[in-house]
Amino acid sequence: MDTIELGRCCGLWVSFALILNQPRVELPTAAKRRLGLDEERSWVVTSETNVFLWPGPDLRFLPGRGPESAAYGVLPPDVFRVVRDRFLAGLRARRAATVPRTE
Question: How do residues 63-84 score in pLDDT, each as one tens digit?
Fold first, then answer.
């Protein structure tokens, strides 16, 4: 696996790092603002990623909107590289996992 796909939709397999109490990368304030997230601290967990058929069973859409409303946008390239590199390092060290979630 070379990348973690973020934000693809319409029947394609995608993978998202979940936010849990695990190894993580904090999102910079500027990236959060661009993605329309709140002012609270946010992280991307790097020890687990879910793989599912979009839209997955755990996604919630905005009222009256479709699958596109569950994706907030793309991480800035520098943040994405850190998330990707830490996740791949965790896979190599057997401290990260890919979990299938599609029902």
Answer: 888 888 888 888 999 999 999 9
